Amino acid sequence: MFHPGHWAAAYLNSLEREGADFEDSIAMLGILSSWARSLPGEVFGCSAAKKIETLIRRGIGEKKLSTGEEIAVRFVTLMVKKNKLRYIDPVINEIKRSLDKKNRVLTISAEYALPPAGDFESRIKEAVKKQTGAHEVRYSGRPRPELIGGYRLRIGDTVIDASILSRLSKLEDQLITGADRISPAADGGN
């Protein structure tokens, strides 16, 4: 079984150990993985890894790579060699999550039936910063008319559902549960 967290931790440990720039390295990792995945056919094994590394270095030309970029090249080459390149997206996502956690960055995604009025985004961001002590809060929002009204927030791994759809669903569950408790004898058989 593949564990993106293990590969992400190994990548981050390499960056840290070498004192590499994290942002440059992750940007390079994204570029290289997109390019390598676009190659036709199955790309794995030692010979494919050597060919890919040669192509990457030829494509870069005379440009001197930073330490972080060099680590990205070696990482993609290793993933090709081990036939794991197809898992690069979950690894990159895990790398970003780990860095966000380390840097105390929270991501908020909001879903709403109607676009929020006023400065909803800035108020939510400030409230989350105050409650959590986060250094930075990233916000994204999108309309979801099926919520009927209200909103649903995802803050990290926590979901706050203050939508009308959620309330109606809970009410429906309560009505069904309550109806199950009523027995014909309790109402006199009527």
Structural account:
The structure is a single chain. Helices cover 56% and strands 15% of the residues. It is α+β, with helices and mostly antiparallel strands and 190 residues long. The protein has 2 domains: 4-101; 104-181. Strands 2-1-3-4 form a 4-stranded mixed sheet.
Helix content: 55-70%
Q: What are the segments in which pLDDT stays under 50 over at least 5 consecutive residues?
A: none
Average of pLDDT? 89
Radius of gyration: 25 Å
The main sheet comes to: 4 strands, mixed
Strand content: 5-15%
Please, how many helices?
A: 7
Q: From N to C, what is the helix and strand string?
A: HHHHHEHEEEH
Number of strands: 4
Tell me the layout of helices and strands.
Elements: H1 4-18, H2 22-37, H3 46-60, H4 67-81, H5 88-102, E1 105-112, H6 120-132, E2 136-143, E3 150-155, E4 158-163, H7 164-181
Parallel strand pairs: 1-2
Antiparallel strand pairs: 1-3, 3-4
Helix pairs in contact: 1-4, 1-5, 2-4, 2-5, 3-4
Q: What attributes characterize this protein structure?
A:
190 residues; alpha+beta; four-stranded mixed β-sheet; elongated
Short synopsis of the structure:
By secondary structure, the chain is of the alpha+beta class.
